[in-house]
């Protein structure tokens, strides 16, 4: 099977919205053993959409379209596709009932345009929208023509429909005997070139599973993809390759999955080990606390922290002796250690992480922009500090500081057995 994905939306075409749907759809199709050869992007224009769909149908077995199923005037996908295929649009009773119930509950009038969301291609399999109202459709064309899969544009609607409705329909229709199973490995502290160099022979001679590297902001990921006839065989192949990779670069491997992050890993380890943490931040201005604070469940291990941007705040809030600030400076090992240890004692936590340095663009205390001291305090141990030098904008330096601090914690806190 050869598939093509078309994202519809003028807002995407103009760069006002980022197209994340195509990547998600491609991963789901790969898991169903369907290869994606082309991605296209078109605005909300019937003529241009018709041209793009015609081209896609001429070279692909399956055309997947996301977007344009809503009730507004610029939502033209199913009307355009129906005209192109020469089929009618029919009403899905379950979808229409859901729409009526929604408007009855909210007390708003049900306008004719909202009824459009219950329409789908005649002769197709309607796909239930569990989080919205626009019904999707899987249309299997006669003879050798390309099949069509229509999905809503909002990711919150498209993703559950793709996973729970479309993929099972595709598997049933195409009866694939081989499937692609992927695993994402996430790395911090090593660049893509260094990582691929250490894994050079594995990448050069890859067969099954395959290995693909992706450089992302402040980290690198590897996607391992196994082609098998069953999930057990796939997991065995992926486990074997993962073990080989960990032998070489496991020190930099922090987690797995498309949606994982260092903050997720650290907070989960804190919860698993029943360890509490606080933070004292100068140059990062609360970014560390904001980052871990965004993780569900963090309240169990994070009682609060300190943002001590000014020297006076370091002295008044944390109690750092003025002599240390005067003699060593705020961009110093001594200040980083004091910030960490005093914040830990004030909130009686097991751990504390501190950040002080120069975010730029100007120097401070004779230290150039990018000079950062990280401090770490642990209950019952002497505080530690690390000196780092980062490059980039103020935002880059701050984020790199936070991630480096999280990675320090990740290496310190053991994973649950």
UniProtKB/TrEMBL annotation:
Family designation: Belongs to the CinA family.
Organism listed in the record: Levilactobacillus suantsaii
Annotated signal peptide: none
Pfam families given in the database record: CinA, CinA_KH, MoCF_biosynth
Protein name per its UniProtKB record: Putative competence-damage inducible protein
Gene3D superfamilies assigned: 3.30.70.2860, CinA-like (3.90.950.20), MoaB/Mog-like domain (3.40.980.10)
Top-rank taxon: Bacteria
Transmembrane segments: none
Gene for this chain: cinA
Coiled-coil boundaries: none
InterPro entries: CinA, CinA-like_C, CinA_C, CinA_KH, Competence-induced_CinA, MoaB/Mog-like_dom_sf, MoaB/Mog_dom
CDD domains to which the protein is assigned, alphabetical: cinA (cd00885)
Residues annotated as domain MoaB/Mog: 4-173
């Amino acid at each position: 099977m050869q598939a093509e994905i078309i994202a519809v939306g003028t807002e995407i075409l103009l760069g006002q919205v980022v197209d994340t749907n195509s990547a998600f759809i491609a991963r789901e199709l790969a898991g169903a053993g369907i290869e994606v050869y082309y991605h296209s992007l078109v605005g909300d224009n019937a003529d241009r959409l018709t041209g793009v769909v015609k081209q896609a149908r001429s070279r692909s077995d399956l055309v997947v379209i996301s977007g344009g199923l809503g009730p507004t005037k610029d939502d033209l996908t199913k009307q355009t596709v129906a005209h192109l295929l020469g089929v009618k649009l029919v009403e899905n009773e379950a979808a229409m009932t859901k729409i009526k119930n929604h408007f009855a509950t909210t007390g708003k009038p049900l306008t004719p345009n909202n009824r459009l969301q219950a329409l789908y291609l005649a002769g197709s399999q309607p796909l239930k929208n569990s989080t919205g109202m626009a019904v999707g459709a899987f249309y299997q064309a006669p003879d050798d023509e390309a099949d069509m899969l229509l999905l809503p544009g909002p990711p919150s609607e498209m993703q559950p429909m793709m996973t729970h409705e479309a993929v099972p329909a595709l598997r049933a229709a195409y009866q694939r005997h081989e499937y692609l199973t992927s695993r994402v490995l996430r790395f911090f502290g090593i660049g893509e070139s260094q990582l691929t160099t250490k894994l050079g022979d594995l990448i050069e001679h890859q067969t099954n599973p395959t290995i693909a590297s992706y450089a992302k902001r402040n980290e690198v990921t590897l996607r391992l993809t196994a082609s098998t006839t069953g999930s057990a065989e796939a997991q065995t192949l992926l486990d074997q390759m993962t073990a080989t990779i960990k032998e070489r670069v496991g020190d930099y491997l922090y987690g797995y999955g498309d949606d994982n992050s260092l903050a997720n890993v650290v907070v989960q380890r804190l919860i698993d080990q029943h360890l509490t943490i606080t933070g004292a931040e100068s140059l990062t201005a609360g970014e560390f606390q904001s980052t871990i604070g965004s993780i569900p469940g963090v309240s169990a291990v994070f009682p609060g922290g300190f943002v001590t941007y000014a020297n006076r705040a370091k002295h008044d809030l944390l109690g750092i002796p003025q002599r240390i600030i005067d003699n060593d400076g705020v961009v110093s090992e001594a200040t980083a250690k004091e910030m960490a240890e005093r914040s830990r004692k004030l909130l009686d936590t097991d751990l504390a992480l501190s950040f002080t340095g120069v975010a730029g663009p100007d120097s401070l205390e004779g230290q150039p922009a990018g000079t950062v001291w990280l401090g770490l305090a642990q209950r019952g141990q002497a505080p530690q500090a690390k000196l780092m030098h980062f490059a980039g904008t103020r935002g880059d330096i701050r984020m790199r500081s936070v991630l480096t601090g999280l990675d320090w914690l990740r290496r310190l806190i053991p994973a649950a057995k």
